[in-house]
């Protein structure tokens, strides 16, 4: 099914020409439906979307950085985060030339009007279409920019857990970019009791859990798993910032827990349940249902989740038992292990 934002782009395809880069595009048929004389490529930081475009045999670039190629026009599908859009616009304006076009498309409820205001500083803005609760804007680039290093976009903050201090680095759009979220804050003190060994942090975000597990025991082998390239790079930066051994850290892009390594001693997660502006429980419910097959005998599952979610039942169905270790501030810390 075609995303309504893609439908709006298709309606105005006469404005497109040459080498067109789709940025943050949804996994749908847009690239196939656009005219054959366009040279379409994709830049995405979502690993699931990247895999979809690879299967469709499009040139797709999974990264936090702009592809190393000549581009005539870009179409930006507005991300949820205003800070992430600022970064994307800066990167685009440092790679395109004056007179080239930036197109911006998004849902009204997804902040497209706010995004169009962010676009204004770069050139002349025209609203090309408004349909299907979406808008499409064109900006003729008047002002190019000089690319700033990625480090300029990092936000940092410090946390302390059980006398352990950590400095967290988070790039735009990454979960809990400005401060430690409540759920992770509740979970962390319990992790002193975790089994050591080969540990996975599912939905690693800025690497808070990964870094804490690495600090607990320098022999722990940490697998930081996330769908988002900005999260994976943030985790790496957090490890650097805290002087942790990068040999301990394995960064892995995943679309779900099924992509995780096998024979893990523990899986820890503050599981994601948002996909863009929409709620999506598929990844977190998949974790509850499939975690056991990725664990060794006596392997452990540690999850923090909103109290209202039915995860304890899903975990019990797989593990036989799910213990609630904490229930505070709207969150539960859940624990299960694989019996012999």
From TrEMBL:
EC number in record: 2.1.1.172
Limits of the Methyltransferase small N-terminal domain: 6-157
UniProt GO molecular function: 16S rRNA (guanine(1207)-N(2))-methyltransferase activity; nucleic acid binding
Domain of life the protein comes from: Bacteria
Gene3D superfamilies: Vaccinia Virus protein VP39
One Gene Ontology cellular component annotation held by this UniProt entry: cytoplasm
Catalytic activity: guanosine(1207) in 16S rRNA + S-adenosyl-L-methionine = N(2)-methylguanosine(1207) in 16S rRNA + S-adenosyl-L-homocysteine + H(+)
Primary localization: cytoplasm
Domain called Methyltransferase small: residue spans: 166-334
UniProt keyword Transmembrane helix, yes or no: no
A Pfam short name: MTS_N
Keyword terms: Cytoplasm, Methyltransferase, rRNA processing, S-adenosyl-L-methionine, Transferase
Protein role: Specifically methylates the guanine in position 1207 of 16S rRNA in the 30S particle.
UniProt-listed HAMAP family: 16SrRNA_methyltr_C (MF_01862)
Subunit structure: Monomer.
Protein name (database record): Ribosomal RNA small subunit methyltransferase C
The species this protein was found in: Acinetobacter ursingii ANC 3649
Name of the gene this protein is made from: rsmC
